[in-house]
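Our preliminary data section would be incomplete without showing what the modeling component actually yields. Below, a chain of 230 amino acids is followed by its predicted structure, encoded as tokens that our downstream tools consume directly.
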Amino acid sequence: YISRKLSQAFIYFQPRDIVSGDFYWFAETPDSYIIAAVDCTGHGVPGAFMSLIGSTLLNEIVNTNKILSPAAILTELNAKVVETLKQEKTGFHSYDGMDIALCTISKDKTKCLFASAYRPLYFIRNGNLQEIKGNSYSLGGKSIVGEKVFKEHEVQLAKDDMLYSFSDGYADQFSEVNHKKLTTKLVKTLLTLISEHDVKTQYEKIKENFEYWKGNEEQVDDILIIGIKI
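Predicted structure:
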């Protein structure tokens, strides 16, 4: 469905277990496409439980309640995660939550609105990477409703620009060779190098690089990378 609407896009999704705490989410409005990369607390069954909550709430917020601004979506999602998990109640100790990078891309491909809880957006034009940082807190968790305000960023787009959103699993993977993490620095280098390729080639290079780096090491976390070429 996503590939029919955004033909120049890829999603590299590699859960650590059968089910995942990372998930991607997509919606269409009359004027735009909304796409999100979400990293929930945990992985496996606990993470998948949070993914189910997050996906259900996003559907309600956007498709039912018609809240369409990225910042407003995150404000509402934070409130609903806190309410659903009863995190505002004394005596409840559920501090689960989620990090999210959420983009609204206009259908004429001229503008991207971005808001985020902890996850950045990488914007690459002509081989130059710009990191657009989100707010430095997760959705849900220990903080109560009203403490979190999300900033909305606007990016003017041009043909062949690349947008990347992702969870932290790829960068946190340990290497079989040196037992070190791949790191966000190397992820930035990789994405910059491959950004001028078509999206199918980018997907293959991201997959090959991960498998080479990991080798026989155990995968440590769920992995999600969304790439969109304008």
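Residues 44-64 form the longest helix (21 residues). The two ends are 17 Å apart (CA to CA). Preliminary results of this kind motivate Aim 1 of the renewal.
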